[in-house]
Amino acid sequence: MNKTSFLGALAAAALLGACAAPPGHQREQSGAVIGAVVGGVVGNQVGSGSGRAAATVIGAIAGGVIGASIGRSMDDADRIRFAHALEVSPTGAPTRWRNPDTGHVYIVHPTRTYPRAQGPCREYTMDTVIGGRSERVYGTACRQPDGSWQAVN
Question: Where are the domains of the chain?
Fold first, then answer.
């Protein structure tokens, strides 16, 4: 898994995992935990030989920091818009919004949709501008039987 895939998996996990989290700092904690797990797994896959353990630890730390940041930066309205974009945007058509309370800008661009027995999955890119800093992440999410979207690796 490359860095781009890692960021996508991490962002999706933090975004979608935080949807179910209670308000406040618990979203940040959920994002940090999810990010640390994803980061550790990715670090383990990227590392080789004697460097694998170090890569796992570094991945877990970086994932935790990034996940906490994403979990902290998106509010409930942003998470709802993210899930809505996955649900209704045609493949190839970006959905853009600016959160009027935070000033954060998000552009979700579904790039591929494919079926599976439990419901569709969507690959996407998400461009964000948070605090003047631009980021692009790639991810995949699948619709669950209850209608929610869940990140997949």
Answer: 3-73, 91-152
